[in-house]
Amino acid sequence: MPPLELVRGFVAVGRRQSVTHAARELGLSQSAVSRQVQALEAALGVKLLVRTYRGLAFTEAGERLFHLAEEALRQLHGATLAARGAPHDDPVTLAASVGIASLWLMPRLPALRGRHPDIALRLLATTRQAEPRPEQAELVVRYASRAMLPARARRLFDEVLVPVAHPALGLSSLRAPAELAGVPLLDFEDPLHPWLQWEDWLQAVRWPAPASPLLRFNQYDLVVQAALAAQGVALGRLALIQPHLESGRLLALAGAPQAPASGHAYWLVLASNRPRPAALQVADWIEAAARLPQACGA
């Protein structure tokens, strides 16, 4: 059986799809994490990860091992807590990226608290460089492809990108690239998900790059705040900005072309296949709320 630290290194790389981010999580150098993955592959005699033009990807054997090993590590952590007599009345920790937490979860928290007033909840907003370890959160809302997630992950909603702008900007439609000329483009710096950026979107819809200034932000909620301040046109992630569209604070530009689907969606991942009842109640409520894209709760 391979040493546990090799398995832990592989799971961290698989979850992040990045050696760099896995190294930050584990407190190791990138070369050390790479050696762990290589040593595990050598011990098993199979290739687990391959490099593609968009980053790392699982092989078929790697995907199978990832799901089994991730669950095994979670169970080991749970058994360790049980052996130490850890309390079971802790708050339910729900983790999500800063953008999802502020734009989707926060408007719905009052309704969640109203439905389950006796459940203590802890919301953990994360960045890609500091995503939670499996033992840090019972529930995680993730933006990912199906292949990156365990079988028990629950699909919440798909990703739909729509160019949006504040009414004060004077744009109501986007039927030709010339309409973007001179208009600032609000861009989300996310090298792991290039389809969320203007350059990739323009290429996908076969439009030339306009002579427009770019304003870049490293958090998606900042992109939305800039759009609300009429600072330019943003690629709106429909599920996250729906309340602003309904209120009229943002307009979906009519006639804009639709880029091909990225294969990513929003998922709710339960850290254990035996969640606490309180965590399961919160998960059920979130899944139900996701079926109501035009409501902020209830």
UniProtKB/TrEMBL annotation:
Keyword Nucleus among record annotations: no
Keywords attached to this entry: DNA-binding, Transcription, Transcription regulation
Regions that span the bilayer: none
Entry similarity comment: Belongs to the LysR transcriptional regulatory family.
Span of domain HTH lysR-type: 2-59
InterPro entries noted in UniProt: LysR-type_TF_proteobact-type, LysR_HTH_N, LysR_subst-bd, WH-like_DNA-bd_sf, WH_DNA-bd_sf
Keyword Transcription regulation set for record: yes
Name under which the protein is recorded: Glycine cleavage system transcriptional activator
GO MF: DNA binding; DNA-binding transcription factor activity
Pfam families, alphabetized: HTH_1, LysR_substrate
